[in-house]
Amino acid sequence: MIKTIELKNSELEYRLTGEGQSETILFLHGLGANLSQFQHQHQYFDKDYQVISVNLRGHGRSRVLRRPNPAAFELSKMALDVIELLEVLGINQVNFVGNSMGGNVGYEILKLKPSLFSSFTTFGTTAQLSTSEITFKIMKYTYIILNTKTIGNLAKAAGQTDTSREKIKEMMSHVNRPILLSILPNIANFNYLDVIKTSSVPSILIKGEFDKDINKALESTIVEFEHRGNFKIVEIENVGHFANLDNPDKFNWVLAEFIDKKSKTMARLTPSAH
To answer: Could you read off the pLDDT of 216-241 as tens digits, one per residue?
Structure first.
């Protein structure tokens, strides 16, 4: 069941399952997607974990309460929404999982409130990206001239199976084009390498074999994480930008193994109360 909550500056939709479990997994989607992307993860993980997925502002029925403007869709504003939501729900720590722009929002949260994370997972996300002015103009013009149905049909090419392609098409066919255009500049150029340097949270980067554009931009992210330590990279074959949709079973197994090992390690390191 999807719930709606009014916060200080926004109204957010979220889904919470497995309530009462001791650990929480938080899933954040990318640009144009929505929380329905993580249906398989709710079903798989909520027997052992509290699982929450969120529609970021401007996606689904999540909205800005005041008159929207481009500044309202900065990634830091989305991060503050998520922080406030977790505070209201009484969730003090999460195993974070972010796809694409959702991963960028995760870096913003990591910068603003690192204590929220017990682990940090991204897929389809890089910590540093520089998009040329020409490439950005082409991207922007494409979103301006195409209708949402066409955007959905083009976006589905990112999927590697019939099921994932249809899901991507469904999500992207419902994008709010003005909001998408407001967000686009925020995900064209960014640098979170310093955030990685100052973080010690256990982290994993799930790399999709066919996520070509992101994979080309991952070198500096991997170098910074490896230099920092407490990090691993796992490549999943035959998946693309939406790894959890292309191969949910493999994705869930990789994520479950990582979180379980992290939890056992933390248990060993935590002094006994007796």
So the answer is: 999 999 999 999 999 999 999 999 99
